[in-house]
Amino acid sequence: MLSVEGVAKTFVGRRPVEALRDVSLHVEAGDFVSIVGPSGCGKSTLFNLIAGIETPSSGRIAAGGETDADRRRLSCGYMFQKDLLFPWRSVLDNAALGLEVAGVCGRAEARSRARELLPRFGLEGFEGHRPAELSGGMRQRVALLRTLLLKRPLLLLDEPFASLDALTRRELQDWLRSTWRTGSEAALLVTHDVREAIYLSDRVYVMSPRPGSIVAEVAVPRGAGGSTGALAAAEVETAVLRALQIETAA
Amino acid sequence: MSASVAAEGSASARTGAWLAAVLPPALVLVGLFLIWEGYVALSGIDAVTLPAPSRVLESALRSRDVLGRNALVTLYETLAGLSVSIVLGIALALAIDAFAPARRALYPLLVGSQTIPLVVIAPLLVLWFGFDLTPKVVVVTLYTFFPITVAFASGLAATDREALTLMRTLGASRLQTLRLLKAPQALPYLFTGLRIAVTYAMVGAVFAEWSGAREGLGIYVLLMKNSFRTDLVFAAVFLIALLSLGLFFLVTAVERLLVRWR
Description:
Chain A is α/β, with parallel strands linked by helices. Helices cover 34% and strands 23% of the residues of chain A. In chain A, a hairpin with a 5-residue loop joins β1 (2-11) and β2.
């Protein structure tokens, strides 16, 4: 689904900034994979490279079988930390924006496809509301609906819950776990919340501070029903934190 | 139900806000008129030099047909000039936003155009274009396209960078990005420019008429001054102010209608 091989990125300028160094990772169809790293380790840069928004200084990226940046962009559904809803559009029109832009169907058809999914996204009865009238959690759900409706094979989630309160965040994590497959075949999540990564993913990559590179890959064991036991989760958390070189208490 | 209650609440709040905005200047205005009236009555100053406001009002009502006919001409010129300005301003702003070379080439010229003394240019325009509509439209346009252009261009430039990235990830073309994101979010800026423009617009038309016209409040003021009808000069001046204010509120009302999300 996604393979990143030996990718490096240096931003040229008066003072060049080396953001990424020799990053390699892969995501298979059906996978939910997370990248954990300290702030400013180049996680967002990596996403911009994968989504074809920026070009790597060296290395090779293939997403959904596409290596060309413009085509790769269309195989990635990119969800940002900010909801980026347009205040002049209703909930329904915001959700339909991606389809409208893609031109795969007319505006009316885009709206009706969005309307069909509103109940699953907990947005039923809010289609006519403006984003300003919604809570932060609801706005992020609209943003996710806008992304998933495009049915792009690879879902890129850039700290989508970072700005939410703990309770809403947990609720949305639960909900994302059961929903993300509606539109996508694989998901890659960037976060600095280790527990979020473990809770949601099958595998966790750990990134070093800038220049970012992958320092560890930790598999999350799943028991029956897809849940991870408390003990196993704690072990994984210890492994990830050790890779992040954070001292855990005793 | 709670939504309708909230709507009613905000409607009455809006009426309150409107009163709070209109009442103070109205009271000051009435006060000034009273002082003026009192001064004229007590000093016995002659009406050609300074007519009392009551006399201005009386003369205005008596000449309302002539005033109205001239006002319509000026209003027409103003709206024609403003229309040209809006089209020109939006087109220039789009060009400035789309092409960096256009920005570099046009900005200095735009600023330069605002330094042209219209006092000098207006008579020339009459010489070139005659006594009809054209020179008035040109003067009004010269007065008003600049704030529209600059405001809309800065609105387009103020588009959130991440929102632009979002549009790229969605696969939007430049035209789609403009239509769906940049233009709607620059709309409040455009209206800010438009509000500035309409306050200048009518003065521009009056000034152009002053330099040569058959009809209109500008030439009317000139004629009344020359025949020592100071009262009617004042009447025309007040009418110009009232009409400009009306245009201003019209723009605000259209903005309320189009920019509902603020």
